[in-house]
Amino acid sequence: MFERKSLKLPITLGVTMIVVTIVLLVGWILINVFAVEGSSDPGVYWTLLSVGTVLFAGVIAGSAVYLTFAIKAVNLTRRQSNFIDSVTHELKSPIASLKLYLQTLNMREVSEDERRKFLEFMMDDVERLDSLINHVLDAGYTAQSNKLELLEAIDLGNLLRQCARLVAARYRIPEDTIQLDLEPCEIRGERIDLVMIFRNLIDNAVKYAGDPAIVSVKLRVSNNFGIITIADNGPGIPAELRSKVYARFVRLGDELQREKPGTGLGLHIVNTLLKRARGKIKISDNTQEDSGTVFEVKLPGAYRPSGKTSVNKDSKAATA
User: Fold this and answer.
1) Annotated domain spans of the chain
2) Which residues are CB-neighbours of 208 under 8 A, at least 6 positions away?
3) Is the dihedral of CA 140, 144, 147, 153 positive or negative?
4) Which end of the chain, N or C, is less packed with Cβ atoms under 10 Å?
5) 3-state DSSP of the chain
6) d(CA 203, CA 292)
7) What CATH number matches the domain at 152-314, 1.10.1200.10, 3.40.50.720, 3.30.565.10, 3.90.1150.10?
8) pTM beyond cutoff 0.70
9) How would you write the pLDDT of the chain (320 residues) with one tens digit per residue?
């Protein structure tokens, strides 16, 4: 799951800098020898000095590049540490809860009402574990560079309805919490990729929405682009951090003090799959509410099906 990058470039750069440093040292010795002997040929002196200056500039540039590699490695290590903390918490909490309910059911008799509540809580814990595993598997799926494309014509409106319905069921919220405003739109793409993109974005919007939650999903077609906006009324994302949320394992805040579950993989999955689909994503503030975030996705190759021009507004996510 962690980023696999070749060490060939940093190793080659390090060896090159060592060689250049040795050459500079030898050149410095030769310059001093010529200076002591009072060489009558100034051309040799200036040639060595020029070459040494160029090599010294190369060492400085190489040091800067190496420092960049080091900073990236530190940042990746920090994100991986956050990922391990979040996964540990996400595994430990539902497992401990499941163990407690099972021990209770095994040790004493409970009423039918209590049994039903225990089973409901246990199912929630299983759903939480299933979601975690799916996120990790989805991240592995996005890393496959040799995957065959299976393009098909997709009704994007129906796909968004299905994703909204799945998210509403997962969080056990009324389906009309996710308000849909969809134009008829079809697009050629990979269904599994699009489902993962919009399931993660809608899930993210519901997870971080305010109380009461207000989430809207809109679909428009313009200039052969499908434009999908997913808005919530949550705390929002600071402008200076919006470019960082797509990296692997990135979650804002302290992992050990976080209230919302997650792994920091959702938006990374979205961004990776959108690049594969030649799409774009943009984050902005929700100007329709006092606070919140709007994710705008643009997908190329969208078109209105023939004979369908009206806008379909749904108050319920499950309307087919």
Assistant:
1) 1-147, 152-314
2) 232, 234, 235, 260, 293
3) positive
4) C
5) CCCCCCCHHHHHHHHHHHHHHHHHHHHHHHHHHHHHHCCCCHHHHHHHHHHHHHHHHHHHHHHHHHHHHHHHHHHHHHHHHHHHHHHHHHHHHHHHHHHHHHHHHHHCCCCHHHHHHHHHHHHHHHHHHHHHHHHHHHHHHHCCCCCCCCCEEEEHHHHHHHHHHHHHHHHCCCHHHEEEEECCCEEEECHHHHHHHHHHHHHHHHHCCCCCCCEEEEEEEECCEEEEEEECCCCCCCHHHCCCCCCCCCCCCCHHHCCCCCCCCHHHHHHHHHHHCCCEEEEEECCCCCCCEEEEEEEECEECCCCCCCCEEECCCCCC
6) 14
7) 3.30.565.10
8) no
9) 444 455 677 778 778 888 888 877 777 776 666 665 555 566 666 776 677 778 778 888 888 887 787 777 777 776 666 666 666 666 777 788 888 888 888 888 888 888 888 888 888 778 777 777 776 776 666 666 555 567 889 999 999 999 999 888 888 888 889 999 999 999 998 888 898 899 989 999 998 898 888 999 999 999 999 999 999 999 888 888 888 888 776 666 544 344 565 566 788 888 888 988 899 999 999 888 778 999 999 999 999 887 665 555 654 444 33
Residue showing tokens 């200039």? 223
- Residue 1: what residue type? M
